Amino acid sequence: MITVEHLCKEFKVNKKYEGLGGTFKSFFSREYTIKRAIDDLSFNVGRGEMAGYIGLNGAGKSTTIKILSGLMEPTQGICTVNGMIPYRERKRYTKNIGVVFGNRSQLWWDLPVSESFSVLQKIYEVPKEEFSERLDFLIEILGIKEFYLTPVRNLSLGQKMRADLAASMLHNPAVLFLDEPTIGLDIIVKEKIRQAIKKINKETNTTVLLTTHDLDDIEEICNKIIVIDKGKKIFDGSLDELKNVYAITRTVHFEFKEETTCLIDIRERNGILNVENEEKNRISIKFLKKEVDFPELMQDIVGKYDVTDFIVEEPKLEEIVKGIYTKDCVYERGNSYK
Amino acid sequence: MRYIQLYFQFLNLQLKTILQYKSDFIIGVFSVLIGQINMFLLTILVFSQMDVLAGFNLYEMFLMYGFFVMVKGMDHFYNDNIWSFAWNKIKDGRFSEILLRPLNPIFYIVMERVEISGLSEVIIGLVIIILSGNVLHLSLGVLDIFLLCILFICGLVVFFAIKLLFSAPAFWTVCCGEFMTAGIEISNTSKYPLTIYKNAIIQKILLYLLPFPIVAYFPAIFCLKRDTGTIHILNGSISGYEIVLYSVVVASILLFVSIKVWYIGLKRFEPTGT
Asked: What does DSSP assign to residue B236?
């Protein structure tokens, strides 16, 4: 559905100098530096897949979305979506995609939601019957009914986002690009939106490409994750694969009957990353899954100390991704853990 | 056909919006009226000092002014949104949204807003034309009226094309409101007979590059059944049908060029921000 091959995008950036004098200097100077926003990016998203596209601010996410939605041409490489090259045949292409930018509304500010929807029907030439069917479906799953006739300017952020999402889906697009759809929303609305996206995908097999900084979005919605950093792809696979490759640590929290300090003998062992006294009688041990024989470790500790409780934790997605970004857990590739 | 339907849909939206801002609408009409009265008084003031300006008397000047106000008003009515393209559509990223729709972007910009108060200018212009025409005892046949309508459309095209042309730099510079303002200021030259601009280069510019005289000067001399006198097009002065022919040709070429330039800009456009 979405195929991206060796995509590069370069921007010319005028050399900037500091201060007022510097502003003048850069105004007249013709020097510029070339900034690579996307560097040899390739990935695939199949029909009906929901792909999470994540990366730090400035990693190239928005640039990718802009190229994929036909707003920009890449410097090199090619992408096809839905069998078309987005930036080549814009008018035909945009008819079959939906785009939502979380920080910008596409609705008519002064008018009720209903009016925006009926204009969109005309723009996308959706047949009346199909439209009303679609509308009923979207109104129901996004809970729009209560504010359907309210002017957009009076809506809350969450309501606006829901209406926006519906607006981008009215013409039943084959591909949906969501650029931070849950930005700034409360937990309840986030949950509603996630459920709705899942339902839409299930119902119409819409392909979704979603950028977000909220990894709960990814965990709940996506069956594919693409991570980019500085314009380069650094991971592409399912959530499970991501965990297998990068969630290489475990943390076990012990609670002891009495005050216990440090467990010095344990700390010295191979593969133990950290031993921390959380409280007087609580200690957590962080270790590398592959190098430590966990049953043995447990036996040793239970045999020596009076353990009343313990919990084993695998790292949260947030931690994993943070690790990927900061590159301090690529243990498998031979570097040691910091 | 589809675009016409869409246009009315958008017009419908506009009217609903305007009804929500009644006072804003009334102020709009009011400010148009004040501007017109002001211009009127100024013209009368000028003619209180002299009887004839470049061969045109007071009522003939009013006639010309009437055409100017009518065309400008119509342009103001349907084609005001291109200003917001020049000023801020690209800057604040709303132009990207337009490109995400399966529509012609120029059409979308035009359609997105109508300025109802422009209609009051059209009416004022029409009234001025009829009143001054009466005083001047103009006798116009059906064919003449038809040709005048064509000239009216040519005038609209000239405004449209020049606005488009002067908004295109926004693709390179992000915002070019001042530049466009400067360009449109030149339209004021068409309130006066072309013959008052003695400089040959300025005349040529106004005839072929920024042909604002098509808006008011040419329709006026067409009505008055005069020729262009000392103004030579190709090899001599023109009158009657030649005026219409000239206007159609020049306006069409200008329209073609301006759309081309705009699309060149569109092609190198890159959206800003996130």
From this structure: B
The architecture in CATH of the region A248-314 reads 2-Layer Sandwich (3.30)
Look at residue B181 and tell me if it is in a domain: yes
Closest among A134, A184, A144, A188 to A164, alpha carbons compared: A144
DSSP letter (8 states) at residue A29: -
Domain membership of residue B197 (yes or no) is yes
B16 contacts A111? CB cut-off 8 A: yes
Per-residue buried b or exposed e for A20-42, using 16+ beta carbons within 10 Å of the residue's own CB: eeeeeebeeeeeeeeeebbbebe
Per CATH, which fold does A45-243 belong to? Rossmann fold (3.40.50)
What residue of B is the nearest CA neighbor of A70?
Answer: B100
Condensed to tens digits (0 to 9), the pLDDT of residues B15-35 reads 888 877 778 888 888 888 888
Query: Coil, strand or helix: which one is B254?
Result: helix
Percent of chain B residues past pLDDT 70, beyond the cut: 99
- What are the beta bridge partners of residue A253? A284, A311
Q: Is A69 near chain B, with CB under 8 Å?
A: yes
Q: Which domain holds residue B97?
A: 2-268
Residue A309: both structure tokens together:
């409780």
> A262 to chain B, minimum CA–CA distance in Å?
49
Distance from CA of B165 to the nearest CA of A (A): 22
* Residues in B 2-21 with any Cβ partner in A closer than 8 A: 2, 5-6, 9-10, 13, 16-17, 20-21
Q: Is residue B82 part of a domain?
A: yes
Among the partner-chain residues B17, B101, B274, the one whose CB lies closest to the CB of A94 is B101
Q: In DSSP terms, which residues pair with A229 in a beta bridge?
A: A232
Q: How far apart are CA A153 and CA A150, in angstroms?
A: 8
What mean pLDDT comes out for the span A34-50?
91
Domain ranges, ordered by start, for chain A:
45-243, 248-314
State which H helix or E strand residue A302 sits in.
helix A294-304
Q: Which residues pair with A312 in a beta bridge?
A: A252
The three-point CA angle A9-A14-A16 to 5° equals: 130
- pLDDT mean over B131-138: 91
ipTM of the complex: 0.80
**Chain A to chain B, count of Cβ pairs less than 8 Å apart?**
59
Shortest CA distance from A94: residue in chain B: B102
Tell me if B100 is assigned to some domain: yes
The structure tokens 């849909």 sit at: B9
How many separate domains does chain B show? Answer: 1
Mutate to test the interface with A, among B16, B101, B107, B171 (most CBs of A within 10 A): B101
